[in-house]
Amino acid sequence: MQNQRVYKMAFSSVYPHYIAKAEKKNRTKAEVDQIICWLTGYTENQLKEIIEGKIDFESFFSSAPQFNENASKITGVICGYRVEEIEDPLMQKIRYLDKLIDELAKGKTMEKILRNK
To answer: pTM higher than 0.90 for the full model?
Structure first.
C-alpha cells in the first residue's frame, strides 16, 4: 500500500525537493535535469512539460522514452534499501533516481554519476 501512495505522487511535487537538495550542496538545477534525462531518455522540453503537468511517478517512468541501459550499474543504499536488490521494478527506478540525486549532492562528478567510467 505504501508503494501505491508513492506511485501516485505527482512527479512535479517531488522535483523541487531534488533541486533544493542539489542546490544546498552547490550543485545546479541543470545537473538535476541532466541526471533525470540521462536516466529516463526524456528531452529537456519533455521534462519541462512533465513538471508543468501533474504526471504521477508511475506514468513518469512507464512513459519514459528510453530508460538508460546503464541504470543497472547504480548500486548502494537509499532509504535503508540496496537499490540493486529492490524487487519491484517501478520502486527500483524511483530509488535509482533518488540515489543519483544523492550522489550529486555528495559531490560526485557528473561523469561518475552518469556511469561513464
So the answer is: yes
